[in-house]
Amino acid sequence: MSSYLWRYYLENDVERFQRLLQGSQSNPHTSAHRGSTHKPALTTPTGSFKSSSVGLAVKHRPGSPPANVLLTSKMLKELDSMGRTVLHLACTEPDRLPFVTALLSHPLMDPSVADLESGWTALHRALYHGNISTAREIMSSCPANYNLLKLKDHAGDSPWEVFGATVHEIQDTFDHNHSSDVGKYSDSEEEADNPAVAEQGLEKRGDEVFAWGSNKNLNLGFIGGDDRSYPERVPLQRPRPLLLEQAKRRYSHLPENHGKSVEELIDAFILFNPMQISDIHLSKFHTAIVTTDPHSNLFLCGFGRGGRLGFGDEQNVQFTFRPLLTPLLPKKRVQKVALGQDHTVVVLDGGEVWTWGSNQAGQLGYALPQKTSKEESNQSTPRQVFGLIKREPIIGCAASRIHTAVFTEDALFTFGKNDGQLGILDSSDATTLEIQSTPRKVSANFLNGTKIKEVVAIDKATVILLESHEVWILAGHAYSRLSFPMERFVGLPEGAKNITRYDTGSNAITKITGGGDTLCALSEVGNVFAVDVDAALKERAVRGSGKVAWAPQRAWSLRKRHMAVRDVDVGADGNIIICTQSGSVWRRVKRVKIKEGGGDGGRYKFDRVPGLTRITTVRSNTTGAFAAIRRDSDLMQKGLTVEPQGLREDVSQMLSFGELFEDNEDAEGLGLADDNDDEWGYGPKPRPKQYDGAVKWFMQGMVEEDIRTHISDLEPHKESGGWDMSVSTSKCESIDLPVHSFILSRSRVLRKLIAQGSGNVAGICEILPTECGLRVVFHDIELLTMLNLVYYLYIDTVIDLWHQRNISKHQANFFKTLRSEMARVATALELKHLTEAVGRMHYPPRCMVKDLQSAHMDPDFFHTADMIIDVADGESIAVHSALMRVRCPFFEALYGGGAGGRWLLGRQGDADSSIHVDMKHVKKEIMEMVVSWLYYDWDAEGFDGVRVGVKDGDVDQYLDFVLDILSTANELMLERLSQVCQKVVGRYVNIRNAAGLLTAVAPCSERDFKEKCLQYICSNLEVMLEHHLLDELDSDLMAELDETVRSNQKRLFPHSRSSKQKERLLEKYPSLKLDSEKERASLIAHYIALSDVSSLSTSSKNHSGFPPTSSSPSSSPTSKAKRKSSKVAIQGSPLVKPTHGHEEIFSMDNDEMLPSSSPIRFSPNLSGTDETTAVVAKDIKRKAPANVWGEPHSSSRYSSPRYASPQQDPFELSTPPRKSHAPWVTPSSSVKLDMKEIMAQASAAASGKSALTAQLSASPATPPPPPPPPKQSTPKQDSAFKLSQKERKRQQQQQQQQQQQQQQPLSAPSTPDKKVAWNINTTPQTPRVSLKEVLASPSAPAEKSKPQTPATPPATIPSTPTPHRRTVLATHASSPTPTTSSSPISKSPPPPPRRQTHFLPLNLQDIIDQEEAQKELIKEYSSKRSLQEIQEEQEFLRWWENESKRVQEAESAQEQKKKGGKRGGGSGGKGGRGRGRGRGRGGSSSSSRGEASGTAGRGRGGGGTVAAV
User: Fold this and answer.
1) Side-chain half-sphere of 1338: how many Cα atoms within 13 Å?
2) In whole angstroms, what separates CA 1079 from the centre of its chain?
3) Is the peptide bond before 1210 cis (omega within 30 degrees of 0)?
4) Predicted confidence (pLDDT) per residue in 850-890, tens digit
5) 3-class DSSP state for residue 243?
6) Confidence band (pLDDT; 50, 70, 90) for 1000?
7) Pick from 491, 1094, 1117, 1236: most CB atoms within 10 A?
8) pTM for this structure?
9) Is the pLDDT of residue 701 over 90?
10) Tens digit of pLDDT for each residue in 142-152?
11) Which distant-in-sequence residues (6+ apart) come within 8 Å of 1190 by Cβ?
12) How far apart are CA 288 and CA 283, in angstroms?
C-alpha cells in the first residue's frame, strides 16, 4: 500500500495521506494483541456492547485506499529512484509539515533511515533546507533518542554539523575574531578541510557555568553529593554587600531618593543584572569561580578542612558557591586564581599575591609558626605574600599539589617542595634543597629578553609559554624546550609539501595546560598535543643519565574548520576535554574495544558532551569533575535599538505662532552659518526645525501686526488646540497669546501660581483668572521678549536676537535690551539653564525632559488636568488632554478622528469638564508608567527604581511587569515605548525563556524584538531543539523561524540557494518546466495504477465464494490455525503437525482460503483503450518482497508485474471448490492409524508396485520440444491452469478404469502438444525446494497428462506422503507446481484447455495472515510433540528413505530391460528439471560408458536414472 503514500504525497493530498496513515495504525496487526483477529465490539448509545457483524464486504471507494489497509515498516522505508523515502522528500520541501507529522505519528516510522546518495537522515535534510518546524517534529517524535543526533552521513557529518555549515557566519558577538576571519576562507559549499586560525587572545568571559561528573568531593557547586551525568547550570548570586554598594552609587544622589535607606534603593535592575564569568578552576577538593565584578568576585565551594576555602571558620563542607568577602580579602578585584590540592593562590589588581590553605610543603610562600612538629601548618584565611615579589607587578599564577609559581611579564618566581620543578639552577643546593618556603626567582637563560605569556604547574614540572610561542619545561633539575609536530598533514612522505593548496599561515603553540602527570598544548590552528611527564622522567631514570626525551603526541588533529580547538584541559588519567570553535565540548575516553595498530587513537576516542553549545572555557580535575563556561549571544542585549526621543518635536507642534515661521525658512542674507559652525549666533546644536525661519521672523519689523492677525485666525480653533491659558505683556495688553498650562509649569514658580489660581511674581508677572482661563501678564517687557520666552518653553532653545550680525546700531542696542529683559525674567521664574545661557551668551542645554519629569512628580502639576483615565480597582489618573493628544495616536483619534471628537460630548460630567477614558483593564501601576513616559519620554532608565520582583528575588515577576507595559503601549500605539520595553526585556533573554518571551512579544506591532529573537534562536538552535525549548512556539512563529533560517542561508550562499540559477535555466530551456510537470503527472499516474492493482487484490477476497454471514478467511480466528501450506514458499520446508478431529496424519492446507498458487485472475484492460492501462502494462515497476510469491529474485531492485493479454475478459475469477478436509487425505479412511500401522501397511504393499513407482515410470522416452515463445497460445500456457484436488482425483479414477478395460500396454505418446505430469520448468533462476514443500503446497496445477502403462498393477501407498530429503523440485509462480498422486495415471482425455490467465499475487493482508498462522503452527507443533512422536517420525523418515531407494532401483532395472541399447536418458540433477551434465543420482548401477553417456545426455528425465550400455 506504499503506492498510496507516494500518490497522495505527489498530489499534495494531505487529508487522504493522514487518513491512510491513521487507518493503518488501527489495524489489529499493529496492535499489542497481534494473535487475535477479532473485530472490536461496538458500543450502543446506552453503553451496552454488541458484537460487530462479520463477513460484510466493505465497499471500496474509487481513488481511496481499501479498508483495513496495513502499512508495514518496509513500505514506509520504500525508496524512489533517487534512494529517498517519502519522509526524506517531505523534510526537504517546504510547506510539507502536515505530511511529516502524519508520517512520524505512525508507530512503525523510523526517522533514522538514511538516503542512498549522501547518507542523510530526515533530520539532516530538514536542517540543511531550513525546515526547523520539521526538525522539531522529528525531535519530538523521539525525545529520548540521542543517537539520532549522532548519526553521521557519508562525509562523517552529524545533522548539526551540516546545519552549522550553512549558518556559520551569523553576525553576532559570540566570537568577534571568528567573524572577522570568515572572509579569509572560500565559500563553505566547498569542503572545509582548511583549518581556521584560532585567535587565542579571545575574551573568555561567559554568562553561565555548567558542571557535571563526579561530585564525591562536593566541588560541583550543587546541594548534595550526587554525581551529575549531564551538565547542569551552576547557580550564582551576587553578595548582598556588593548589591548595596552598587545601588547606593547609582541612586543615592537622585532627589527623589533622599531619605531612603540603602536597602530601599535596590531595584530590579541592580538585583537581576546578569553576572559575567571570567574564569573557573577545579582541584581535587575545591572549586573557584572568578567574575567580572569590581570586588567580592571570587566564589568557592568544596571541602574546607585545612583552610583551603579561606573563610576562616574551619568550615568542613561548602556545598554551593560562596563569595569571599571583605575583610577576608581587600576590596579589590581578583584577576587570577590557581588551585592546588590543599591551597589557593590569587592575584589581585595591582599585582598583589594572596595565598591560604595547607603549607606542609611551603607552597604558600611564607613560614607559619608551629607549636609542635606534628602540628599541621595551615592558613585558614587569605594572607599576602611578600619577599621578592613585594614590589613586583604579578600578572599570573599557577599551583600544583606541592608548589606554586607566580610571574611577571619577564620574571618567574617559584616556591614549595623542590622535586626538580622549581627551576633552582644557580646554586649548589639545587638538588639538596628540600623546601623553598619563600618566592625565589628562576634564573634560566631562556627567560632573558622575552615575555612570559602563561605558566602551568604540575607536581613534577613547571611549564612556561613565552610570547614567542616557545614552550619550556622545568623538570628533573633541568630545563628543556618542547618541540611539537606542527606539520599540517600527517602521513605524507618526508619532504612532501601540501598537495592541494598552499598554506602559509602560522601555526604555533598559543595555550598550555596540565593535570596529573600530563601536559597539553594548543596550537593556533586548533591541534592539541599531549606530553606524559612522568613516563619521560622514568625513562631517563632507567637510562641513568642524559637529557629527558620529551615526546609530544598529537591528541586532536584538525579535520574541519569548525572543529578547531578553542580551549583544552587535562583531567583524570590524562583524559582530555576540549571545546571547539563552534562551541561544542568533547571528552577523550578509553575505547571499549581497542583498535589494533591505532596507537593512542586506537586506545582513545572523543565523545561529545550533550547539551553544551557556545562554550568558551572547559576545566576538569583528577577525580572526574568537569566544568564549562558558556557565553551566550549578546544579540538581544546590544542588537535592539530605540528611536531618539520625540518629546521636543511633539511639543514644538503645539506652539501657537509656529505657523508664522513656515514662510520664512530661507535664511539667506541673515548671516546664519551651517550646522557645523560652533560660533555663537549661528544656531543651537542640533538646530530645531524652522529655526532659521524663526530668526528671520523675529528680526523683521512687523512682528506685532503678524501676531495680532494670527491670533484672530486662531480664535475659532482655540478649543481644538487645547490652549487653556494665555500670556500677554503690559506694553501690548491687546495681544493675548494662547499657551498650555502644562508647558508653563516647566517653571516651578509659575507651576505653584497656576495651582493656586492667582498670584504674582514681584516686578515680573501676575496671574489673573478670566472667563477663558488663567491669564499671565508680564510687566515692563517687550513683546519680543515674551515671544522668545514662550518659544523657549516650547522649543527648548532661544532666538539670539542680541548677537546677530550685519545689523544697525539701533537694532543692536534694542536687542541688548531684550537680552537684559530675558535674563531678568528667567531669574525670577527660576529657569536656571536659561539664566545661565543668556548670561554667558551661549545656547541653553536641552532640559525639557528633566523639567517635565520634575513637574510630573509635583502634585501641583495636575491641578489643570482635564482628562481622567479610569483604571482597574476603581482607581483613576489625571492627565492633560492636550499633551496626551499630541503624544499618543490613540487619544488623538479619540478627540479628533473622523467624528471630530463629537462623540466625546456625552462623556463630560456635570460636575466638571473632564473627559473620562475607560482603561479599567489596566492596572494603575502599569498606566502610571505609560503616563510618565508620555510626559517626559524616558528611555530604558525609566525602569530604574522599579522594585517588582525584588522582594521574592523573582525575575519573572519583573518581566511580567514590563510585558504588561508593552501590551498597553501596543494598545495605545506608542511605538517608541514598545521599543523601550523590548530593549529592557532583551537584557534577560536566554535560551530557557527565549521562546516564551517571543510568544508574548510577537503580537506587538513593533517587530524589532521578534526579528532579533528569531536570529537569537537561530544562533542557539541546536541546544534549544535538543532540549525541546521551542515547543512553546506556535505554527506561525515556527514558520517565521523557518523563513529566518532560510534567509540566513540564502544570504551566506546566494548562488546555491537563490532562484537565479533556476530562472536562468528556465530562460534557456523554456520547455523544462512543462517537462517537469509532465514527469510529475506520469509519476502520479504510475502510483495511481499501482494503487488500483493493490485495491483490486484486496477487494477480490469479497468475491471468493464465502457466505456473507461468515467472516472472511483473513479475519476468521479459526482459519489462521488451519492454514499452513501457504507458508511453504516462504519458509522453505513444511511443518509436520498432528491433527485434531481429522482422520489424516498430517493436516495440510485449508481450502477456506484462496491458495497462493491459485489467485484471482484478472485483466487490467478494463476499458479497452484506457491510457491508464497502457501505463500499467508498460511502466509499472514495483519492489516485491523477496520470495513472497515463490518467485526468484531478479537482479534489479524492482520487478514488473505480469498482465494478461488485452483480449481476455476484464474479470475472471477462479475459485476452487471448498472441501471439508485437506486434499491429500483419503476420504475412505475412517479410523485414525498410528505410525506403526502405517509402516506395516507400507511393508505389506512392498510386493506390488506403489503409486510412486507408477508415477516414476511415466517418464517420456524422448524429451518434449522447448517451450514456445511467450504471448502465444501454446500447451505451456495451457498448462498454467491449475485444477482442484477433487477434479484431479476424478480424472485419475477415469484413467484407471480405461486402463483396465483396454487390457493392453500403451506406449507413451510423443506428440509435442502433450506434457507429462512431471514436467519440470528448466528456468535457471528457479529456486530448488524439497519434496516436503511440494507435498505441503495448497494445490497442484492441472496439466494434460501423458498416459503410462505400469508393468505391474499399482499398489497404493497410504495417503500420508512424507517428503523426501533428496528430491528437489522447483517452484515458480508462472510454472506448474509438481505434485504426487495416490493412484497411477491412466490414459484419459485431458481437461479442456482454458483461456490463458495470469494470476494476481497474494496481497499484503494474505501474507501477514499466513505468517501469523505459521507462527501459531510453530508454537502448537513445538508445544504438543512428545519424545515418542519424534522418534516415530524419525523412524518413518528412515523407512521412507529405504522405500524410495528400493523403488528407484526397481525402476532403473525395468528401464534397462525396456530401453536396452538406448543412450542419453540421463537426468540432469537430483530428480529435478534441467539439463544433465553429470552422473545422475538415483540410478542403481553405471559403467564407465554409462557415466559418459549420462554426462553427454541432454533431455528431460523423470526418475533421475542413468541407463547403462
Assistant:
1) 26
2) 33
3) no
4) 999 999 999 999 999 989 999 999 999 999 999 999 999 99
5) helix
6) very high
7) 1094
8) 0.71
9) no
10) 776 668 888 99
11) 1129, 1156, 1327, 1371, 1372, 1373
12) 9
